[in-house]
Design brief:
Helix content is 36%, strand content 20%. It is an alpha+beta fold and 217 residues long. It has one domain: Glutaredoxin, CATH 3.40.30.10. Strands 1-8-7-4-5-6-2-3 form an eight-stranded mixed beta sheet. It is globular and about 40 Å long.
């Protein structure tokens, strides 16, 4: 299972180039060509293989989190505001379970992050929000997380189409359809009302640096 997942992630990394902004294509292609296909282990992807660390766009934003109730991978109803405004640093991305392009790459980023940071005990929470709520039911989301050997501290949320669109609109991530979704990661600290918005595929080292900045390390 993990070998097939690894192969799928490698293929998705190459496919992702087609969806990146044109200015980043050349850099991404060079990054992909420099991958060592043999330097893989059975628990995911090698560090920093899922994106370049030079061309992502970083901005500071303010968002009004909508008052919606979503459902996690275990079928539990959760208040989005309570999750995102908790006492923990929150990292958010937007994916869907049948995606074969950007989503496996973003999820590989979460895998590598959990290798470096114990999200079960640390003051950080990883959140993936489905952009395909019609198909992403808790069972599928649970299976998706198991495929990536997700540790505690990584939650996958879905909801009604209306509520998901409210979330995407609030975070300026609304798209015409799921196949045109963007490579976006958001980071938020409870000490501030601002969000770090990262557009593009960021390497593990830079991902950790962004987290450590919020953590005050």
């Amino acid at each position: 299972m993990m070998k097939r997942l690894i192969d799928a992630v490698l293929i998705s990394c190459v496919c992702t180039v087609l969806f990146l902004p044109l200015k980043a294509n050349a850099e991404t292609e060079r990054s992909m060509k420099n991958m060592d296909m043999n330097d893989m282990n059975m628990k995911g992807v090698k560090e920093d293989q899922f994106g370049t660390n030079e061309k992502y766009k970083r901005t500071i934003e303010k968002y009004a989190v909508p008052d919606v109730t979503l459902v996690d991978q275990n079928g539990k109803k959760v208040k989005l505001r309570e999750i995102l405004n908790s006492k923990k640093i929150v990292i958010v991305d937007f994916i869907f379970t049948t995606c074969t392009t950007i989503c496996p790459v973003l999820s590989a980023g979460y895998v590598n992050f959990q290798r470096k940071v114990d999200t079960n005990t640390a003051d950080v929470r990883l959140v993936s929000i489905s952009i395909d709520p019609e198909n992403d039911i808790p069972k599928k989301m649970n299976e998706y997380l198991k495929q990536y050997d997700a540790k505690p501290g990584w939650d996958f949320l879905t909801g009604s189409r209306e509520d998901i669109d409210k979330v995407l609109t609030a975070f300026k991530a609304l798209i015409p359809n799921k196949m045109s979704h963007i490579q976006l990661v958001l980071l938020h600290t409870p000490a501030d009302d601002k969000w770090v918005r990262i557009f593009g595929l960021v390497g593990t080292s830079d991902f950790l640096t962004e987290y450590e900045k919020l953590h005050g390390k």
